[in-house]
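Q: Hi! First time asking for a complex rather than a single chain. Here are the components, and I think there are two in total. Is that enough to go on?
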Amino acid sequence: MRTVDDIIGSKPNPDNLISPDALVIEALEMLNTVNLSYLIVMEGNEYQGIFCERDYSRNVILKGRSSSSTKVKEVMTTDLPVVHTNDTVEHCMHAMNINKARYLVAFGPDNEFEGVITIHDLLRQVIANKELVFDTSVAEQLINNDERGDVY
Amino acid sequence: MKKVSDILARKGSHIISVLPNATVLETLKIMADQNIGSVMVMEGNVFLGVITERDYCRKVVLNGRSSTDTQVGEIMSTGFPRIVPSDTIEYCMQALSESNIRYLPVFNADEVCGIISINDVVRETISSQQETITHLKDYLHTNM
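A: Yes, that's all I need. Here is the structure of the assembled complex.
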């Protein structure tokens, strides 16, 4: 069963970190340079939230702000659904679906920040490992056992 | 095997679109009002492209433009893989992943008939998995 740990382990070390006091325009430049949809906002070693394309689209010009004078911390997302390193990929899909989110934040057993999981990460897992993502034990029981209880 | 037509049946094929000369700012307002991340760009019945949050992030301010003086036709995304209602969800997953995109316009004989998003694909994958498990559990209970 694939877990959050597997996803984080399969991603390179993040190069999309930004300070909460950086300007939105700097964040946009970084998004372009790293070619991602989000940045991880860190205060030193402390996770603060993420700044994503939606934050820019909804919270800057439509709220009378400008990208050259607004700080990332004024517009970032801070309430991402939380998952833990032992949670399954399937659990992550449910979490995204129920919360209508495209990102999850992952914490380890001691509540240390582990990384951010995107909907594309989950899709890659499903494509690569469909039988390992979903619990197929019911299907296997059906396939392997006939009504008399014999095993094939 | 779930298909694109199943997603469209569930979410509807109502298309939200703008003309290519609509401003980026007007389109951002539509996105916020509808809580969506993309809008189709159409001229009458002709599909021209899709304007997405990514287009806004990459092509306006960073290119010295503003959302009030830029038309969506100048920055929209084009060149999407062609998806039809009979395509499978798995095919869509591959298309989304390979092109690193979030939206797939759906075509029926050259006319666009809807758009599906990466969220729609995930939702359909989960619900189809749950249906399979429910059916299998029902079968087990009645036959064992």
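A: The beta strands of chain A are 17-18, 38-43, 46-52, 82-84, 103-107, 113-118. Let me know if you'd like any chain examined more closely.
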